[in-house]
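Weekly modeling sync, notes
Attendees: S.R. (lead), two postdocs, one rotation student

Agenda item 3: backlog of single-chain predictions. S.R. asked that every request posted to the team notebook include the full sequence so nobody has to chase files. The rotation student volunteered to paste the first one in as an example of the format we agreed on. Action items at the bottom.

Example entry:
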Amino acid sequence: MSDKPVPDTAPSPVPVDPRLLEILVCPVTKGPLEYDRIRNELISRGAQRAYPIRDGIPIMLPEEARILDDGTA
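Predicted structure, as returned to the notebook:
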């Protein structure tokens, strides 16, 4: 066995087209979304949900969204 560190093989987030971000709205509130690059999510402050982005595609289904606990991302 080798004592070499194992490289992190997690895929990098695929960037979202900025034009797409301009037209997307929250499916629950129809309000604006904020792009969180670190978590690779679209945040709806009004609905208190974070919609995941997978392979560069926003998953805009309320049942797939992460609920924001305390109003922060």
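Discussion: group reviewed the output briefly. The chain has a mean pLDDT of 85.
Action items: rotation student to repeat for the remaining queue; S.R. to check formatting next week.
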